[in-house]
Amino acid sequence: MTDDTHRFFRFSNQDSYETLTTAGNTARGLPDGDGTDRWLAVWADLFLDPETNSDRLYCVKRSGIIETDDFTLEGIEEINLETYLQRLQWEPPIEEDLEALDELNLELPIH
């Protein structure tokens, strides 16, 4: 996940997010009957921004974005990967943690 492969966003307006998602679903013919119901996650499944406790954070693969997707709606702010990770207060796992997960046969969740 890099700035070259994904676009990162902070959403502060749920209505704008729903407008973006609905238009994107329509443009993509979703739900498609093959198990794909939505283009983007539901609002409740987005990452809660710990700095605001109300805004949501989400990333979208650039390859999945089409020309009609309107990320200029009110309350949609594009950010870069560094800012996205800072907002999530994420820190990369240390080597010992990765080795311990391997020993327990656990997988890191990917979002």
Task: Note down, in words, how this protein is organized.
This protein has 111 residues and is of the alpha+beta class. Helix content is 29%, strand content 16%. It contains three helices and four strands, in the order E-H-E-E-E-H-H. Strands 2-3-1-4 form a four-stranded antiparallel beta sheet, sandwiched between helices. Strand 2 (47-48) and strand 3 form a beta hairpin. The longest helix is centred in the first third of the chain and has 14 residues, at 14-27. The termini are close together.
Q: How do the strands of the widest beta sheet line up side by side?
A: 2-3-1-4
Q: Beta fraction of the residues?
A: 15-25%
- Give the mean pLDDT: 88
- Assign the structural class, choosing from mainly alpha, mainly beta, alpha/beta, alpha+beta, or little secondary structure: alpha+beta
Most strands sheet: 4 strands, antiparallel
Assembly state of the chains shown: single chain
pLDDT < 50 stretches: none
The SSE string, one letter per element, is EHEEEHH
Q: Report the span from N to C terminus.
A: 10 Å
Helix content: 25-40%
Radius of gyration: 16 Å
Tell me the overall shape: globular
Tally of strands: 4
Number of helices: 3
Can you give keywords for this protein?
29% helix, four-stranded antiparallel beta sheet, 4 strands, 111 residues, 3 helices, alpha+beta, globular
TL;DR of this structure?
29% of the residues lie in helices and 16% in strands. It is α+β, with helices and mostly antiparallel strands and 111 residues long. Strands 2-3-1-4 form a four-stranded antiparallel β-sheet, with helices on both faces.
